[in-house]
């Protein structure tokens, strides 16, 4: 085993220990709690949450923005937290699945996911639920999707058919393949909220 | 009366935690641990000339850098060949860190341990490895050709080869009125769980004890392997499996190089060390599956009855063979499906290539085998102009022939004997569900609208619940809480729920009072693992048997207290009472109190415990020992379930596709499943398993394909490039169930985990073929592939389906070999 001659250095304040990187102060309100960080500007929202703040209610699936497992809400809009730089979200209100409910007081989407058996291993589920929350807000605001009958209509709330839900949730991979029930669970909530 | 829990669609009790982000997967553990990263080979086949780690030592935060020579003792030996099947002629396994040679891109060469992963990655980039290139062997065709070798001591690149035969296939083929040969190509794919592998090792220096958390499908397997590799007593090693973000097979292989390296480093450094696989690492250094070239020659009579079948499977098992030949073995044996094959010969040739290792992926070789059989049956139907379901029916094993001995040895070395199943009934259900007999009318209607639709079918039989055994431990606390432990692991199957359902019924307690632990060697050391759709069958039955033991003891103690015959007692909602007494005073006793009495005490730790002290019970016989001879203190039961052989589940899928006449886009309009896994513990969970299986099956049929270039670089090693189905690609799935109980186990259950995946490629190929009118012999099939096939068909290079005797006769051997003899890989 090769080991460095010098004793262990202190933990570096930034990723990529070689060289100095200016850090930036970042304030986030995470699931209702104000948090302050001093970060390398390259740190993603995902790594800031998981590695720096110990918030593990958001999961990392691919770290490349291709699976949706890390979806959180930033000021109510769904984002892929692995592709979002924390520094550019200074002052944002970040909501993870833990901010949408607790085991003894589930949010309506969480309740619906349980009732519809819309998960198996649960790894993608926090991202699915945050994504669904953001998606429901988009539909309410009239944002059309690829399958909307009239993409010019941006004023009235979108009727969330199964096809609309499938299309709008198509950024969230579920390798256990619980899609049939995910679509049903989100449909239940969409109807209940409207 | 307590509601019966077995068979009830109980909501999963693990879910409230998981939907609120409370799941604790491997990377959610070990805050503050040192982190490891690995230098991996960028070359598919090369000799290692030199490794210069000096650059890494200059990176601040690096704690250790290891190469092969740093691995202590047996940790530097080759990794184990876990399943030493007799058909293996050359079983080569890799090292935890490559020694002299690398055999696939992604093979680990060096490990850096540092204060965090970022530092470790930076240091990895500073390690210089000089390689001397060797020719790479990529793909089945190149491996079979044998011009270049992966391992010098595996001539012809053959790792294993086996012929199994029932009857005399060659003679049957020779005398058959009709013969057909099909050459088929099934792609390489991979499990791709959302959570990759990961390991966290903690060494307690004072106790000399290693605790390893791993995202694995076998806690006991990892424990035994690490103890052996690291030369530790088994009693000084524990493996705990946290929440696991999906497995689908890839996490059953063990020990992974990283499990060995990280554990060894934790011991040497006296620190917690953690490694979590990133997505690219998972693509290039875990395991793949499926990839086979296949040839089938079938002989049949005018009615479509199969007289003889001769199959050869060329199986690509990658660079090493740690998991043996389970995959090609399953392909070869489970190919038989629900059909009577009295003259069947099958040979598999399992070949080394300079690619990632191949270990089971949901279905474990069965999708490939079923693809061969079902394509063959469809070809027979086409050759004779018969309905595809009619040919199937004519070849079905019938219920009165159960148990049915296939005549081949299964992957567990035991005879392949189907224990139960009613294939004609399943087919009838499927035809009704999909509207098989009405489809031609629908096709005409669609055609009138300029649409092209097709109907396909796929049938399978699946050996589930293979041995050797699993165990269950049931313990009733003095609070009435019931603790249940079984050793196998959970990666999304809802074991906390289904095992609690079983115990609630067996003991007569509320399901909420039952708490289940899986995959923790501290709680249950004797175990095998979660694979082969075996958890419900193996652990479910073991836990039921254990609960029966606990119940028997509870009734014995309660009978003494109530002075009644235990046979007159029942347990309802956690209260033992005289049957029919209404549970009044003197005729009933809570199970919690029975638990108190089961453990004679010297010290009363609370009010209820007084009853168990030496002065608490007036009826104690002063001359008898407080714990009777042959008894143990405590209200517990432990038992194991070890079946003589697997139990065989079955099912049938039908699918309707629409293919776009212009763009060749393929859309699934309906997907129907009839499924028989015996008695269902929880229909909701079974349905979820079927849905998940179908989703992966649809992925396998239409999207998922791992593509290597000729130099052995994996070209699509990301979620962006390796296409998997999202909500937008998976159709609504219609299911119907048949419950033919297994006579082999006390609960009458069969496995359900892999079922949905197995016939999907066969069924979808069948449907596309039906829509297009020319044969489909290679999977997956993308719109581009279909478009190319249409071009070939239009150019006359691909024959049309015959829909029977178009030329006035049946099939014959010379005229019906309707694909090129060797389908070159990458043709699509």
Short summary:
The complex is a heterodimer of chains A (194) and B (828). By secondary structure, chain A is α+β, with helices and mostly antiparallel strands.
Distance between the termini of chain B: 62 Å
Question: Low-confidence stretches of chain A at least 5 residues in length (pLDDT < 50)?
Answer: 9-18
**Fraction in beta strands of chain B:** 15-25%
Distance between the amino and carboxyl termini of chain A: 63 Å
Q: Looking at this structure, what is the CATH superfamily of the largest domain in chain A?
A: [2Fe-2S]-binding domain
CATH class of the largest domain in chain B: Alpha Beta
Structural class of chain B: alpha+beta
What does this protein structure show overall?
The complex is a heterodimer of chains A (194) and B (828). Chain A has 194 residues and is α+β, with helices and mostly antiparallel strands. Chain A folds into two domains: 24-100, Beta-grasp domain (Ubiquitin-like (UB roll), Roll), CATH 3.10.20.30; 108-193, DNA polymerase, domain 1, CATH 1.10.150.120. Helix content of chain A is 28%, strand content 13%. In chain A, strand 1 (24-30) and strand 2 form a beta hairpin. The longest helix of chain A has 16 residues, at 125-140. Chain A is globular and about 60 Å long. The model of chain A is unreliable at 9-18 (pLDDT under 50). Chain B folds into three domains: 32-134 and 191-285, Aldehyde Oxidoreductase, domain 3 (Alpha-Beta Complex), CATH 3.90.1170.50; 292-466 and 644-827, Aldehyde oxidase/xanthine dehydrogenase, molybdopterin binding domain (Aldehyde Oxidoreductase, domain 4, 2-Layer Sandwich), CATH 3.30.365; 470-641, Aldehyde oxidase/xanthine dehydrogenase, molybdopterin binding domain (Aldehyde Oxidoreductase, domain 4), CATH 3.30.365.10. Chain B is 26% helix and 23% strand. Chain B starts with 14 loop residues before the first helix and ends in a 34-residue tail after the last helix. Classes of the chains: A alpha+beta (194), B alpha+beta (828).
């Amino acid at each position: 085993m090769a080991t460095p001659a010098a004793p262990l250095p202190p933990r570096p304040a930034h990723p990529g220990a070689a060289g100095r990187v200016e850090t930036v102060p970042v304030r986030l309100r995470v699931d209702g709690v104000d948090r302050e960080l001093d970060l390398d500007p390259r740190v993603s929202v995902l790594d800031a949450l998981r590695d720096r703040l110990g918030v593990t209610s958001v999961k990392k699936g691919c770290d490349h923005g291709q699976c949706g497992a890390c979806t959180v809400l930033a000021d109510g809009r769904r984002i892929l937290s692995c592709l979002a730089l924390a520094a550019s979200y200074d002052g944002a209100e970040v909501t993870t699945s833990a901010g949408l409910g607790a085991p003894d007081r589930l949010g309506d989407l969480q309740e619906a996911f349980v009732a519809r058996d819309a998960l198996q291993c649960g790894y993608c589920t926090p991202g699915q639920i945050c994504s669904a929350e953001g998606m429901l807000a988009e539909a309410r605001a009239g944002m059309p999707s690829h399958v909307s009958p009239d993409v010019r209509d941006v004023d009235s709330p979108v009727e969330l058919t199964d096809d609309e839900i499938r299309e709008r949730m198509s950024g969230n991979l579920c390798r256990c393949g619980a899609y049939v029930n995910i679509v049903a669970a989100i449909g239940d909530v969409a109807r209940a909220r409207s | 009366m307590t509601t019966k829990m077995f068979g009830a669609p109980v909501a999963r009790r693990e879910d409230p935690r998981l939907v609120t982000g409370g799941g604790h997967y491997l990377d959610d553990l070990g805050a503050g641990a040192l982190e490891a990263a690995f230098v991996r080979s960028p070359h598919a086949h090369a000799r290692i000339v030199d490794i210069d780690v000096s650059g890494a030592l200059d990176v601040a935060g690096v704690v250790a850098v290891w190469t092969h020579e740093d691995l202590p003792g047996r940790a530097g030996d080759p990794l184990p060949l876990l399943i030493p099947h007799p058909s293996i002629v050359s079983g080569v396994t890799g090292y935890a860190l490559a020694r002299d040679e690398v055999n696939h891109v992604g093979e680990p060469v060096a490990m850096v341990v540092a204060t965090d992963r970022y530092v470790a990655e930076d240091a990895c980039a500073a390690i210089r490895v000089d390689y001397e290139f060797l020719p790479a062997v990529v793909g089945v065709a190149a491996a079979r050709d044998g011009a270049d070798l992966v391992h010098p001591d595996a001539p012809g690149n053959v790792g294993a080869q086996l012929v199994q035969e029932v009857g005399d296939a060659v003679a049957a083929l020779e005398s058959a009125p009709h013969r057909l040969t099909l050459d088929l190509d099934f792609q390489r794919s991979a499990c791709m769980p959302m959570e990759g592998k990961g390991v966290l090792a903690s060494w307690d220096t004072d106790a000399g004890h290693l605790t390893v958390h791993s995202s694995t499908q076998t806690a006991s397997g990892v424990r035994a392997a690490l103890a052996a590799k690291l030369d530790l007593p088994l009693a000084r090693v524990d493996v705990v499996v946290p929440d696991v973000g999906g497995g689908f097979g890839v996490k059953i292989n063990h020990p992974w190089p990283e499990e060995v390296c990280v554990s060894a480093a934790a011991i040497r450094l006296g620190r917690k060390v953690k490694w979590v696989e990133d997505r690219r690492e998972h693509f290039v250094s875990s395991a793949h599956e499926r990839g086979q070239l296949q040839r089938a020659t079938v002989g049949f009579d005018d009615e479509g009855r199969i007289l003889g079948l001769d199959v050869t499977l060329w199986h690509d098992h990658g660079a090493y063979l740690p998991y043996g030949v389970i995959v090609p073995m399953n392909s070869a044996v489970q190919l038989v499906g629900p059909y009577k094959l009295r003259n069947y010969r099958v040979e598999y040739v399992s070949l080394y290539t300079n690619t990632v290792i191949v270990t089971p992926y949901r279905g474990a070789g069965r999708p490939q085998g079923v693809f061969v059989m079902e394509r063959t049956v469809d070809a027979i139907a086409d050759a004779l102009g018969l309905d595809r379901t009619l040919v199937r029916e004519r070849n079905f094993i019938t219920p009165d022939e159960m148990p049915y001995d296939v005549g081949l040895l299964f992957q567990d070395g035991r005879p392949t004997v189907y224990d139960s199943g009613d294939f004609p009934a399943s087919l009838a259900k499927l035809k009704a569900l999909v509207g098989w007999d009405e489809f031609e009318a629908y096709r005409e209607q669609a055609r009138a609208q300029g649409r092209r639709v097709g109907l396909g079918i796929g049938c399978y039989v699946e050996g589930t619940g293979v041995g050797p055994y699993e165990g269950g431990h049931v313990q009733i606390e003095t609070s009435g809480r019931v603790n249940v432990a079984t050793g196998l692991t959970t990666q999304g199957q809802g074991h906390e729920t289904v095992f609690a359902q079983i115990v609630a019924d067996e003991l007569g307690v509320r399901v909420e009072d039952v708490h289940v632990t899986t995959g923790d060697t501290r709680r249950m050391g004797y175990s095998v693992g979660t694979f082969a759709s075996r958890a419900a069958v193996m652990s479910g039955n073991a836990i039921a048997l254990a609960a029966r033991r606990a119940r028997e003891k509870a009734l014995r103690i309660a009978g003494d207290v109530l002075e009644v015959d235990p046979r007159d007692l029942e347990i309802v909602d956690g209260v033992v009472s005289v049957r029919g007494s209404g549970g009044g005073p003197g005729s009933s006793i809570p199970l919690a109190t029975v638990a108190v009495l089961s453990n004679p005490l010297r010290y009363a730790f609370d009010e209820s415990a007084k009853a168990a002290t030496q002065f608490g019970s007036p009826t104690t016989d002063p001359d008898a020992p407080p714990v009777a001879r042959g008894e143990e203190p405590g209200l517990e039961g432990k038992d194991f379930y070890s079946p003589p052989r697997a139990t065989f589940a079955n099912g049938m899928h039908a699918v309707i596709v629409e293919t776009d006449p212009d763009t060749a886009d393929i859309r699934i309009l309906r997907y129907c499943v009839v499924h028989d896994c015996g008695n269902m513990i929880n229909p909701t969970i079974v349905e979820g398993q079927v849905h998940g299986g179908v989703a992966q099956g649809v992925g396998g049929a239409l999207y998922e394909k791992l593509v290597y270039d000729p130099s052995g670089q994996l070209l699509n090693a990301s979620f962006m490039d390796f296409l998997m189905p999202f909500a937008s690609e998976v159709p609504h799935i219609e299911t119907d169930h048949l419950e033919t109980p297994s006579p082999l186990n006390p609960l009458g259950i069969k496995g359900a985990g892999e079922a949905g995946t197995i016939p999907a490629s066969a069924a979808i190929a069948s449907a596309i073929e039906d829509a297009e009118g020319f044969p489909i012999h290679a999977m997956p099939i993308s719109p581009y592939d279909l478009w190319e096939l249409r071009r070939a068909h239009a150019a006359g290079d691909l024959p049309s389906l015959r829909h029977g005797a178009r030329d006035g006769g049946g099939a014959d051997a010379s005229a019906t070999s309707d694909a090129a003899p060797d389908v070159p890989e990458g043709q699509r």
